[in-house]
């Protein structure tokens, strides 16, 4: 069993409804700069778009209230920010369905700041798909 698989299995949990697992870090130090300015600019852009549509603004606020209620997000004041800090920019994606428009919040781990992103420091894990080249070469 690889180190990735061991870390995955050790952190896997089920709360009766959903599974969760910790993010797999690449080996070495996660040296992320404080990207507050980038995240603030992205949030201001989201707020400008939401200000034009009260229904979407309410959906967005409701989703974040659920995140806070479920403990998936937490409010942080200036005194609590100590040590390294990385803010995860986010935006909403809206999809029209049979029951109306549905929103989901997408977090942007690939947002670069000073040449690095959160995704640069995370391990994608082992490749689980069959190699496409092998499939094509075996095709008759």
Q: What does this molecule look like?
A:
- By secondary structure, the chain is an alpha+beta fold.
- The protein has a domain at 33-122.
- The protein has helices spanning 3-11, 36-51, 54-70, 132-138, and strands spanning 13-14, 19-20, 90-97, 100-107.
- The strands form two sheets. A two-stranded antiparallel ribbon has the order 1-2.
- The chain is globular.
- The model has no long low-confidence stretch (mean pLDDT 87).
Helix content: 25-40%
Number of helices: 4
Radius of gyration: 19 Å
Helix and strand pattern: HEEHHEEH
Overall shape: globular
The major pleated sheet works out as:
2 strands, antiparallel
- Unreliable stretches (pLDDT < 50, length at least 5) are none
- SS-based class: alpha+beta
Strand content: 5-15%
Strand order, largest beta sheet: 1-2
Distance between the termini: 34 Å
- Mean pLDDT score: 87
Strand elements, count: 4
Key terms for this structure?
alpha+beta; 140 residues; 4 helices; two-stranded antiparallel sheet
Short précis:
This protein is of the alpha+beta class. It has four helices and four strands. The model has no long low-confidence stretch (mean pLDDT 87).
Which helices and strands occur, and which strands form pairs?
Layout: H1 3-11, E1 13-14, E2 19-20, H2 36-51, H3 54-70, E3 90-97, E4 100-107, H4 132-138
Antiparallel strand pairs: 1-2, 3-4
């Amino acid at each position: 069993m690889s180190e990735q698989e061991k870390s995955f299995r050790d952190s896997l949990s089920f709360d009766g409804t959903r599974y969760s697992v910790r993010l797999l870090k690449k080996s070495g130090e996660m040296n992320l700069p404080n990207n507050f300015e980038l995240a603030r600019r992205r949030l201001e852009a989201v707020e400008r778009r939401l200000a034009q549509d009260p229904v979407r603004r309410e959906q967005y606020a409701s989703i974040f209230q659920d995140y806070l209620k479920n403990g998936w997000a937490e409010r942080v004041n200036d005194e609590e920010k100590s040590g390294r800090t990385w803010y995860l920019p986010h935006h909403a994606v809206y999809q029209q369905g049979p029951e109306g428009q549905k929103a989901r919040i997408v977090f942007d781990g690939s947002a670069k700041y000073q040449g690095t992103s959160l995704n640069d420091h995370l391990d994608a894990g082992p490749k689980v798909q069959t190699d496409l080249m092998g499939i094509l070469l075996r095709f008759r």
